[in-house]
Amino acid sequence: MVLEMSVATALAAGCSSLVCFMYSMVAMANLVDPSPHLGQGSSLVACAALQKWFTEDHQCTLHLWHVPSKEEWKIHHEAHEVAKATKIPLRPGCRVLFDFAWAAKEMAYQKEWHKDFSNPARQGKSFLELVGFNGRPLKPMTSKGGVWSLFLAASSNSMTARTCRATVGHAPMGKYCLHFHPGELTHCWCPPRPLQTRDHILCICPRALCKGDQEPPFSQIEVLKFCKLNDWVFDFPPPEGWEPD
Predict the structure, then answer these.
(1) What pTM was computed for the model?
(2) Residue whose C-alpha is closest to residue 228's, from 173, 169, 155
(3) 49: part of which helix (H) or strand (E)?
(4) Which of 11, 108, 6, 7 is nearest to 60 (CA)?
(5) Which of 16, 117, 169, 173 has an alpha carbon 20 to 30 Å from 226's alpha carbon atom?
């Protein structure tokens, strides 16, 4: 809405060339999109002003430039920081966009989710701590498929299942069998036949192939690569008498 108001104000000042720098491709597209969408009213204001502007003078030009915020281009970044720091209190009669209200509600739910997730009793004692590309622990999120969606993009359903089992600790390994399948093999085959735990498989077992030193915490990429190198880990044995097609 601020962008559309700025365009209308600039055109009303009598300029013949307008150059807009934006960090959001969505905002850039919405600026000249009169079709139904969230914030359509603001877009219609900008479109009406632009139509009048171009009709009165065919020499007028509009340039839209996409400037990613991560580049922190000096003049654009300074304007961005000033806009972020500006707080306009809501007064009676003010309208709140649906997407803004939805984002605020989603942020509140996600904050509560992070609080619950930080509690080991809620997270689960066997949940594998994973870190992202920045080295920080992964936290649940609702957008972009969630932080664990990388596992869902694995090369096969079997790989997805194995990486998920490794993460939650519910996998065909000794420690799991000790609690849920008494009587089954619980020790690893490598000497001196220790209890087969997830940490043992990921970090110690000489039967497991790995690239470099394997030490927790692990990233999603490391878990995926480990499972690809070792097709036997976190996988259930085929049923007796089963033969591949």
Answers:
(1) 0.56
(2) 155
(3) helix 40-56
(4) 11
(5) 117
Residue 25 maps to a domain: yes
The pLDDT of residue 109: 87
Q: E strands within 83-217?
A: 130-131
Annotate 94-111 with DSSP letters as a single string: ----HHHHHHHHHHHHHH
Domain count of the fold of the chain:
2
Domain co-membership, 204 together with 126:
yes
* Interacting residues of 155 by C-beta distance below 8 A, sequence separation 6+: 228
Q: Which two tokens stand for residue 91?
A: 């007064």
Q: Residue 43: inside a domain, yes or no?
A: yes
Rounded CA-CA distance 154/228 in Å is 10
Identity of residue 70: K
Q: CA 117, CA 142: separation in Å to the nearest integer?
A: 14
Alpha carbons 100 and 102: distance in angstroms, whole number:
5
Mean pLDDT of the chain: 81
The terminus-to-terminus CA distance of the chain in angstroms comes to: 59
Does residue 90 lie within any of the structural domains? no
DSSP state at residue 198: H
**Cα 84 to the center of its chain, rounded Å:** 22
